[in-house]
Amino acid sequence: MAKGYWVSVYPAISDPESLTAYNKLARPAVQAGGGRTLSRGGRVVAHEAGITQRVVLVEFDSFELAVAAYESEAYQKALVALPDGVQRDFRIVEGID
Questions:
Q1: pTM of structure
Q2: Which mean pLDDT values do the consecutive 10-residue runs of the chain (97 residues) have?
C-alpha cells in the first residue's frame, strides 16, 4: 500500500510566534492519526519558482490515513487556531509503492 504525505509550504508567515497555538493542537492530532513528521522548518534550497520559507513534510502509512487525519475532529480544531497572518499551501499526496 502506498504511503500518504502531507506537504505544507508557507509562502508567508507574518508572525512565526503566532503558530504556537496551532502547533500545540496539530502535533498530537497528527500523531493520533499515525503521522510522522519528517521535516519541519529546516534548511531549504529553492530552485525555479520555489520558496525558502517553512516547509513541513509528514508521512502516513497510507494515503487514506493521511486524508482521515486531516479530516479528523482534532486536526480541524487545530486549523481553527492557524493564525490569519499565515499563508499556507497544503497538499495530501500519495507516495509510490
A1: 0.90
A2: 94 85 94 96 86 91 98 96 90 94
